[in-house]
Amino acid sequence: MNSPVEDRLREALAEAGAAVDQSALRPLRVPERRRFRMDYRLVTAVVAVAVAGSAVAVLTGGGAEGGRDQLTAASVFSRADADVTVFLCTATAPKETGCTAAAGPEQRRMIERVLREQQPQIAASQWVSQATAYDDFRERYAGNQALLDAVRPADLPPSYQVKLRQGADRRQVTSAFLKVGGVSAVIDHAESADAMAAAQKGQKTDVNVFLCTAGTSLPACAPKPGSGKKGVAATADQVKAIQQTIQQMPEVKDVVFEDQAAAYENFKQAFKDNKALVEATRVQDMPQSFRIRLKSDAPAWALVDKLKRQPGVAQVVSHWCIDERAALHADFGLYLPDRTVCPGGA
Amino acid sequence: MASIFAEHHVGLVRLALIMVGDQATAEDVVQEAFARTHAGRARLRDADKALVYVRSAVLNGCRSVLRRRATVFRRALPYEPPVWSAESAVLMGEERREVLLALRRLPRRQREALTLRYYFDLADQEIAETMRISASTARSTIARGLKALGRALGEDHS
User: Tens of pLDDT along B66-102?
Assistant: First the structure.
C-alpha cells in the first residue's frame, strides 16, 4: 500500500517530468568526429548486448525504467500491435475502477510474476510508464486542447502491453491479470475493437436530442438554473421550437421524432434480457427525443452545443463522443466524464 | 552508448530537470554527460550497466550545477528555477509545487533516491548502483527521505 506522501510525490514528479516536451529537445551532438564509421558499429554491438541484459535484469529485479521497457525477448512494439493491455491503478483513478491507491512496486512484481507464469501464451510484453503514456496521449490528442487541459500526467495509468502467441487463450490471460491487486483494467484490444464495430453498425443516428420529462433530476431541466428542484417537462412550444431549430441546421440530413410510446418499445427491445429493469420502467419515464442523421461523419460540436442550450433539452448524445470515450478507455485506461471528452456536451 | 542516450534522452532530461529545475540547464547536463561518457565508451566493459552508468553521469552533472549555483548565489537572492517557481504554480497547481519545494529542501542524497524511486520506479538495487551507494543505504535513505517529506508536508504526525 502506498502512503499519501508517496502518492503525492509520485504525482508531483510525473507532472514536473511531463514539462519536458519530447519534440522540442535539442538533439545530442556527437563530440568526436574521428573514426566515426567504426565507432558506430561498435556502439550497435554494445547496445544489442545491453538490451538483452536489461531484459533479464527487469525480469529478475522487478523494477523497470521510465520508457517503454521490454520484459521479454523481441523488439519493442507499438501500442497498435498490443493484444492485451493491463492498466495499473493511479492515485487519481475514479471509484469505478476499484482502485484505492496507486499500484506500488509489490503489485508490479505480482503482475510481472503473472507475465512469467503466462509465458506459454505470451509472445512479448513491455512496460509503459506514466510519462510515456502521457507523451503518447499528448501526441494523439494534440488537436483537442480542452481534453489536454483536463487530463494531468498523473491521471494516466502506467501499463503492461502484452503481445499474445498464436492461438493463446485470451480469456484465461486477461482473467489472470484481473485477479492481481492494483490493476484498474485489463483490455483485450480485439474484443474492444469488435464491440466498437458492432456498436457503430447498430447505430442508426448521429445525434440524439433528449427532451425534459417531468421529475427528472437532470440540471438542464430544473425550473430555475441551480435551484436543485425537480425538472419540468418540455412544453409543446419548446418542442416545436427545437424541431424548427434542427430542421434549419445545414448539417442535418434528416430528423425523426420519437415519442414516449416508441421510446418505450425500443427500450423494451434493447433490454429484453433484463426483465427487472423493463418492469421497473414506465412509459412516462421515457424521454421524448429527436434522432438526427448528419450529412457528414465529421463531429459537429457547434451543432451539439447549440442544441444543448435550447430550453426543454435535457441532454444531447452524439455517437462520436461515445466512440471517443471508449477509445480513451481502451488505449489509455482513462475513465473520463462526457463533458471532458466532448467539448460542448455529450 | 550513443543509442542508449538516444533512446533514453527524454528520460534523462527529465531526471536532470527534476534535479536542477529548468529545461535548458537539464539539456546541457545531459549533453555534457553524453560527451563525457562518449569518450570513455570503449572502457565500458559491463554492457548491461550502460544505462546505470549514464544515469549516474547525469546525476553527477546535476550535482556540479547545483554546487556551482550555490557558490554564485551565496550572497545574492536565492535562485528560484522555473519548475518550482511561482509562474509554474499556475500551470502546475499549488499542491504539486509544494511537494517539489519540500523535495528540493531535502538533503541531496534523499532527493536523488526519492526521484529515482518515485519517478523512474527503480528497484533498490538499481538506485544503489546509480548513486554508487549500497542497496541497504538506498533503502534507508528512501525511508528517511519519505519521513522527512511527510513532516515537511504536515502529513505524517506519527
Answer: 777 665 544 444 444 555 555 554 555 667 778 888 8
The CATH number assigned to the domain holding B97 equals 1.10.10.10
Residue A197 lies in a domain: no
ipTM of the shown complex: 0.74
Q: What is the residue-wise DSSP string for A157-197? A: PPEEEEEEPTT--HHHHHHHHHTSTTEEEEEEHHHHHHHHH
Quick one: cell of A124? 512479448
Closest Cα of chain B to A86: distance in Å? 17
Of A30, A56, A66, the CB nearest to B120: A66
Strand order of the β-sheet with A159-164 is A68-70, A122-128, A159-164, A84-88, A183-188
Relative to beta strand A159-164, strand A207-211 is: unpaired
The type of residue at A34 is R
Half-sphere exposure in the Cβ direction for A182 (13 Å, CA) = 17
Q: A8–B114: do the CB atoms touch at under 8 Å?
A: no
Domain boundary among A188, A217, A236: A188
**Angstrom distance (rounded) from CA A239 to CA A252:** 17
